[in-house]
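seq:
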Amino acid sequence: MDALEYARPEPFPGYVVKILDGNALAATEHRLKELRRLRAGALPGKAVVVYEPARNLMVDLFACEDGHAQERSLLPALVETVQRGEVWVGDRNFCVTDFLVGIAQRGAYFIVREHEQVRFTPREAMRDCGRVETGTVAEQRVVLTRAGQATLAVRRIAVRLDQPTRDGDTIVHILTNLPPAAAPATVVARVYRGRWRLETAFQILATALASEIDTLAYPKAALFGFAVAVVTYNVLATAKAALAKVHGADTIEREFSDYYLAAELDAVAAGMAVALPAQDWHVFRVLPLTEFVAFLLTLAQNVRLARFRKHPRGPKKPQPKRSYDPKHPHVSTARLIAARK
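struct:
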């Protein structure tokens, strides 16, 4: 990706932003002996993915075979991977005092939505900091406490929303240890809101790459399938980076469909395996990086983007009120259409 010179600008110059989120794998079929007499959904595992938005890559994955485990159980392993100068962004499930302190101790930073279980002591009153697209922003200095003892000085940022969230929240509180000079409160609020990029990536994993296969009942198999999809996502991201270099990043971001690209690869892979024997691919193992990038760009120049154009749906229409007659629980679609004509 670096050789392709593909990278979105970082919101905080000099810092590397990473977004983390958990993904509970969907319930599988009841294929195992232990599951056959149960009606409850069988959860094969859970994973926490680390995503780097600047390069559009999933850079790490922490897997757990227990589908009912909390994401917090994976935090001790996750904090060991934190590097100096990184900014970790997460929702309130990751707002654990020990985890936040661990990030700070490793010379890194966090932007995490506040969880009600976290305790802190205010050092000042809230002061207004302006507006973002979703509401007004204010902040204050607080100190996180653990067992009544001060542990870490942070900034507490409040976003008073113009429209409530789907959970009915009207205010979102965000904790960060970034210095105000490098990260104004309004920028912090925007970066937290940018978590949707990882949610979009999860959607691509599920719909285009079939990351959650309901026949894989064994947890190890289900998690392996999910991990393969994550690696495949990075392959597609690299292909899109080459296309962006040739056709323009805005065009690829706005118009190019990940789903159609994945469908194309799925359709032609078997034929290519027949037409090109394995030894024909060995050259790519030893091809220097500069030559490999040049080859990708040559391929990108020959791609007809019209074949992979997105077809976004229009705005959702309000659902009409539906009538129901228990005496006639079914209707004939053909008769209704005939009546319309």
